[in-house]
Amino acid sequence: MSRLYTENLSVGYGERRIVKQLSADIPDQQITTIIGANGCGKSTLLKAMTRIIAHQEGTILLDGKQIIKEDTKALARKMAILPQSPESASGLTVGELVSYGRFPYQKGFGRLTSRDHDVIDWAMEVTGTLEFKQRPVDALSGGQRQRVWIAMALAQETEIIFLDEPTTYLDLAHQLEVLELLQKLNQEQGRTIVMVLHDLNQAARFADHIIAMKDGEIVRAGSCESVITPDVLREVFHIDAAIGKDPRTGKPMCLTYNLVKDESTVLHAVPEERIPVSAGA
Question: What keywords are annotated for this sequence in UniProt (predicted)?
C-alpha cells in the first residue's frame, strides 16, 4: 500500500463536481505525473491532496491517517507544494523566500535557528541558487526563479513534493533544467515527486508512474508504456497519435498527432525500426 492515496474522492465548487469518486495511489519514492486536457481536474486533485481545498466525499490518507485531521504544521513537515502560479515574491531576496520553507518548524517568535540556516543553505546549494542568496527574486530569470521556489519547498524537508505545471512559461532549456533537478532529487534523495505536466513527452521521459485523467476521473494509471498509448490519448485528449520510442531514453514518445474527426481514420504506433534517429533528440 502506498503512503499516500485517495479513496472515492470527490471535489468540487458549489454544486459542480470536478473530481468524481477518484481512487488513486501515489507510489513512494517515484515520480508521478498527472496528464489530461484542460479542466479535467488535474490541479483540483493536487490541491485536494495537499489540503489547499476541501473535498466533499471520500478520503485522502497519508501514512494511514486522513489528512483532513492532521495538524497543519505536522502535515507541512510531510508534504510541500509548488502551485501553478506562486504568489508574488516582490521585495524579497532569494534567501528570504527560501527561509519561508522553515515555517513548519518554527516556534515562539519564529526566529531562525542555526539548524534552519543550514537547511536553507543546503536547499539553495542543491538547486544551484546559493549564489543568488542576496539577490532580489524579481531580478532572476524564469528558470532561476522556479529553482528558488523549489528550494523553498526543499527547505520544508518533506518527503513528498507536489508541483502544478512547474515548467509553465519556461523556455525549453529551463524546462529541462527544472525537470532534471526534480529527477535528481528523486533519484539521489528518494523524494516522492507528484506533478502536473502538459507536455506528454516530458511526462513520459521523467515519470515512473502516470495518471491520465478525463472529466474528473482516471482513464488509466500505471507505467509510461501502459498510459502513453494511442487508445488512451484518443480517449483523454481526443487525438489520433502515432507513438514511437524515444531513441535516448527508450520511453514511449508521441511523434505526431491529429485531432480525431473520423473514427474510421486511425494512426498506429510506428515500428521502432522506422523511427527517425533525430526524433526527440
Answer: ATP-binding, Cell membrane, Ion transport, Iron, Iron transport, Membrane, Nucleotide-binding, Transport
